[in-house]
Specification:
312 residues; alpha/beta; 5-stranded mixed β-sheet; 5 strands; 12% strand
Length: 312
Amino acid sequence: MNRFLSVVAFLLALVSPSATAQSSADELLTNPAIVVTGVSPERAETFVKEIMPDGWATASRGVPRWNTELCISVIGPPTEQGQFIVDRISQRAIDAGLQAGAPGCDTNLLIIVTNQPETLLPMVAKEHRALFGFTGDANVDTGGSSSFTDFLTDNKPVRLRQVIQTVGADGMPLDGDPEADPFGDTQGYGGVAPPGNLPVVRADSTRLRSAVSRQLSRVVAVVDTTQTAGIGLGAISDYLAFVALADVSSEADLSDFPSILNLFDADAQKQARMTDWDIAFLDSLYSARLNAASGTAQYREIADRMVRDRKE
């Protein structure tokens, strides 16, 4: 059963397609993006360090990324706009080396488009709190995203909530059965699979590699249409694609770089689509080793790959 089925049904009852008045035309896509023909090591390192979230999880437990097919549901906008967003993000995921799920697949990326997030989100959280992940489990975290309270009360154009699992070499989450339904009955174990489903992980970490890696399990993005007026649908879709595919610091300052992440920065140059910097980062993220000894080592490898793939 689709894990998000009850959430989607709940949202459909609350969110009307009239929640967004943005045109389905994507005028800004005709604007040329700045193309980077070469990347110096210093510039690549600076770009990666700005994106890299702070914290112990990043330094010691590795860089999270998707290791499953990406299955997207969009709630709120007219059907044609929702399909555009799904298609655009799916193509960016495919370009990075991921697979896009077929229609009817188990949603793991949920995008909510609304002009009343401050009203809608508390209602969703009350009915489906497990959707957003819980803190306190050593093997589940929310990456560089803000606390749950901040997520509910923040005033950003796009709010993001990631749920990240630590998995063993066999891909099994260390907190139990990866197929456990977060909305279903787990026999009184507080949302964690019963002990009989706990995996056995062979401890073979060394100074050069780790026996575990961090994997994006599900992501919820909320777009506030009162703050996105006048921005092309293609640009918003590319922004959503980047923040859904990578764990981005909430404090990232990329004003010195052409990047789609500057979309809502009033002082930075706007981009109508992902630039070479963005694509190089995502390509390098999804080609880097999953079992590097630390997140710091993985981010260093990402920066190195950005340079190797685009020689000056």
